[in-house]
Backbone:
């Protein structure tokens, strides 16, 4: 039933983590320490010699067998008992045997989304509330994680395996794709389930920061919902190779038109990966990338015409980071705030008798090629990894020395995340941002191509708006955000591993097309259920308030998805957003609220699992009364009775005074004589104040259609 050539792809050919046998292979998602879903028939799949008899036996007394097909592919279902263990699972064919040890039977959930689900307990310093204590206490033998890595090559997954929750693993920071690391939100969700259910909990983590919902959706499902793009997507049901070739031909034509129309030089963006193992294989593509800019790295290049770096734009994400592109270029102008920028400075060194280290504290976002006196000393792709580049004394001048850095930001925030230092054993030289001269050298077009320009800063600022309207946009094919890319190259690693359900935390990267998000999100949920072959529960975190335009639109789309898609639940986060950080530090409540939904709806605990949900409203004279579902033991305000607005037939909204009357909200504004409509929390950035007495916040909402 689940033998899907387009899904299984490479994973069917991967060796089990604890085995090096020939001819009999299973996906790495099967390993020692795995958790299998209780009281069901769990799916095993793999590859062997053609027509081989495959038998799988669990030491709980159940077995199952199947004959491999002509390609050697096979799939079977093994009955599981109620929760317990440890057990062993033995997989045999006529020549080989694989034994998986210390297997637990319990509840298995898939945890997916973007960076807020990916975020680890020790992602960075002070990234999680009560971080040190949480890490120290993360010791649960019966909570286990499989980390599906962020690697489009599908190579890193070969080294992954299930791991128990251990404090020593929770301390990992740099190894974001290591087998030891695990999602903080996923962990807090699992911990809450474990405490209440008292059975083993397995979490399959499969997230990728900054990703759009389209990347997680199958091509056939996208084809169904994007009928207006039929011409472009007409080959989507062909083989992936044929489809990608078609997209590449389309993009080539787009590049030619852009080059002719604008006079820019067009270059393909090299392959990239935030995984350090894969980066080792592809970094040469960036080292050798020539954007007609090799002279910029030379020691004696004349940069006197370049302006100095002066941060003069308010950065909505982090006001302290004055080295990000967004502090010089308006963050809403993505054409400028993403792209390639060269930085150059000269630094005086008195002691050239020992090596120095050039340090970029907290990293560079996304990639850098760094030169000291014209010599390449560093080449890294990572949005947050600290750089420590050795500067050999052999290349250091006594006196003036040049530093040249090409920084490429592909999306989101870009540039220096922290101080730049040159240090040795006895001195530390701080290199201020305003000592750098800079040149914006290339635009990024849909993560598909670089567009190299020769505009100075004044020209760039003057023509950027008109350029943005003129540039033709290619289709993203090489990045994680390409249509169906993560469905194909990431999710396929774990399909169709038997799960109880899915938790999801994503949406921030779809703010630019929030009007489509409900359709896209509902389609993705349906798509996954169709792929797995059953209607599992899907619980998701509504994104927290944040200043970025479109945030409100995504929140509203997520609220509406509850009505349009069955067997779903939404954890509202109106009270935990942070104005200067898109990653709320309170991951504990996110996990708890997702767990509360599961415990209530899936496990029969009959909890109040949602905050007040807008139901209806009624006008009485100059007052407007609002009714809610999920009020629990009653409505309440925390932090003020604000956030409500009402409007008359003209739909001009005014702030309204709110009061709880008989478990309803009564609203009044002196500016509205005949109220007809209501909204609450209707801003990108706000702090929710309406809760039920169980402490769960209400979502933002409007009685009028979002515009």
Residues:
């Amino acid at each position: 039933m689940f033998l899907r050539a387009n899904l299984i792809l490479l994973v069917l050919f991967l060796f089990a983590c604890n085995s090096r046998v020939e001819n009999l292979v299973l996906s790495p998602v099967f390993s020692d320490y795995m958790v299998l879903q209780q009281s069901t028939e769990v799916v095993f799949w793999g590859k062997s010699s053609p027509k081989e008899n495959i038998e799988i036996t669990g030491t709980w007394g159940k077995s199952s067998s199947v004959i491999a097909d002509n390609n050697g592919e096979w799939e079977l279902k093994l009955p599981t008992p109620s929760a317990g263990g440890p057990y062993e699972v033995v997989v045999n064919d006529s020549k080989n045997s694989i034994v998986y040890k210390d297997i637990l039977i319990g509840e298995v959930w898939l945890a997916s989304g973007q960076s807020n689900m990916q975020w680890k307990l020790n992602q960075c310093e002070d990234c999680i509330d009560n971080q040190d204590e949480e890490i120290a206490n993360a010791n649960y033998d019966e909570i286990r994680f499989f980390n599906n890595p962020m690697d489009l090559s599908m190579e890193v997954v070969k080294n992954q395996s299930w791991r128990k929750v251990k404090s020593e693993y929770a301390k990992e920071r740099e190894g974001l794709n290591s087998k030891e690391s695990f999602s903080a939100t996923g962990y807090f969700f699992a911990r809450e389930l474990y405490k209440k259910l008292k059975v083993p909990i397995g979490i399959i983590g499969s997230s990728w920061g900054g990703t759009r919902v389209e990347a997680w959706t199958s091509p056939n499902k996208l084809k169904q919902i994007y009928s207006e793009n039929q011409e472009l997507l007409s080959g989507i049901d062909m083989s992936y190779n044929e489809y990608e070739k078609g997209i590449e031909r389309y993009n080539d034509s787009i590049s030619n038109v852009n080059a002719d129309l604008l006079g820019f030089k067009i270059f393909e963006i090299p392959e990239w990966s935030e995984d350090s193992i894969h980066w080792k294989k592809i970094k040469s593509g960036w080292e050798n990338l020539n954007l007609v800019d090799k002279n910029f790295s030379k020691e004696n290049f004349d940069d006197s015409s370049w302006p100095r770096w002066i941060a003069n734009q308010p950065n909505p994400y982090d006001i302290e980071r004055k080295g990000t592109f967004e502090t010089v270029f308006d963050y809403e102008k993505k054409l400028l705030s993403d792209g390639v920028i060269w930085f150059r400075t000269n630094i005086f060194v008195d002691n050239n008798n020992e090596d120095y280290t050039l340090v970029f504290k907290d990293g560079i976002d996304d990639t850098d090629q760094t030169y000291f006196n014209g010599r390449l000393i560093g080449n890294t792709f990572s949005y947050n990894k600290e750089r420590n580049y050795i500067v050999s004394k052999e290349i250091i001048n006594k006196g003036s020395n040049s530093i040249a850095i090409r920084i490429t930001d592909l999306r989101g925030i870009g540039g220096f995340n922290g101080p730049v230092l040159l240090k040795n054993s006895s001195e530390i030289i701080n290199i201020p941002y305003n000592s750098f001269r800079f040149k914006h050298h290339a635009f990024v077009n849909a993560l598909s191509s670089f567009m190299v320009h020769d505009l100075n800063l004044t020209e760039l600022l003057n023509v950027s708006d008109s350029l943005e309207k003129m540039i033709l946009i290619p289709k993203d094919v090489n990045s994680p955000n390409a249509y169906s890319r993560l469905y194909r190259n990431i999710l396929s690693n774990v399909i169709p591993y038997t799960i109880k359900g899915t938790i999801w935390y994503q949406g921030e990267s779809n703010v630019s097309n929030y009007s489509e998000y409900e359709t896209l999100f509902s389609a993705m949920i349906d798509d996954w259920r169709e792929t797995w072959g059953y209607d599992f529960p899907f619980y998701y975190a509504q994104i927290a308030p944040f200043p970025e335009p479109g945030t409100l639109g995504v929140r509203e789309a997520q609220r509406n998805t509850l009505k349009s898609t069955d067997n779903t639940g939404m954890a509202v986060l109106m009270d935990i957003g942070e104005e200067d950080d898109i990653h709320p530090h309170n991951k504990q409540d996110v996990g708890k609220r997702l767990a509360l939904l599961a415990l209530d709806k899936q496990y029969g605990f009959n909890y109040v699992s949602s905050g007040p949900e807008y139901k209806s409203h009624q006008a009485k004279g100059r007052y407007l009364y609002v009714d809610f579902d999920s009020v629990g033991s009653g409505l309440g305000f925390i932090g003020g009775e604000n956030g409500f607005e009402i409007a008359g037939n003209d739909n001009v909204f005014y702030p309204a005074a709110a009061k709880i009357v008989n478990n309803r909200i009564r609203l009044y504004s002196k500016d509205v004589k005949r109220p007809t409509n209501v909204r609450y929390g209707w801003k990108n950035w706000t702090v929710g104040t309406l809760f039920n007495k169980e402490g769960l916040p209400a979502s933002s909402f409007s009685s009028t259609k979002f515009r």
